[in-house]
Write a structure and sequence with these properties.
Radius of gyration: 18 Å
Strand content: 15-25%
Mean pLDDT: 91
Number of domains: 1
CATH class: Alpha Beta
Shape: globular
Order of helices and strands: HEEEHEHEHEHEHEEEHHHEH
CATH topology: Spore Coat Polysaccharide Biosynthesis Protein SpsA, Chain A
CATH architecture: Alpha-Beta Complex
Structural class: alpha/beta
Amino acid sequence: MEKIEKQYRKNLGGTWVKIIIPYRLKSKRFPNKYLKHFIGKSLIEHSIILSQNLGDVILTSPEEDYIDEVSKLKLKYDFEFIPTPLKCRSATDRAIEISKKIHDDYYVIIPVDEPLIKRSEFERVLSSNLDDFNMYYTDFFNEEDCISKLSAKVIFTKDKYLLYMSRNVIPVLKNGMFDYKKCKKAVGIKVYSKFAIQQLYDKKTELDLIEGLEELKLVELGYKVKMHKIRHIGFGIDIPEQIKLLEDRYYEN
């Protein structure tokens, strides 16, 4: 483990990271979602596997959500559980709470509902040149994924800085037509420097609340968010029916 950590510190140019895996088990659309199995493992377990040996892994949720099914994973994997308050309304809010207690160079937020993220792609971006604010994105797999309100679409500048993000299809022609191959999907991984995450303490913005996309607060507050492309065929699981859809896609590709 020590050898891996030293090599990875070198890859990151001397920086080190906290990899934060936030989750909540109470959900109106999909209760206990993160305990559900996808190709043989729970969604939480997939996220832990993705993160092993790339930084200090921290699971965080309200204390009441740290149940046996989660705590038993410590017998197999290296991570720490740190509770965060019920009042946190987003993954970033939970990461902010962690950053107040534990200081480091970078904080990585993992989306537990995206089990098909390739470790090689995750690591490639993490070991590249990072800005203060960083997000991952990918091409859409098909038009159906692009149309879905469950996916977030992003547009950015020529030098890959976020311009806007929406659940609606963007960009579209003025006649309403669009080409899904020209649309880009937010993957959900966010990498914030210590400075960056401190700027988000107790910040709420109108666009964030309207669209229900917490990343929009960064745009509205005027921060530059670097977009990093990865190869990825998956999507975030938001409803029970999507588990089989994503499993079928995995086996077919």
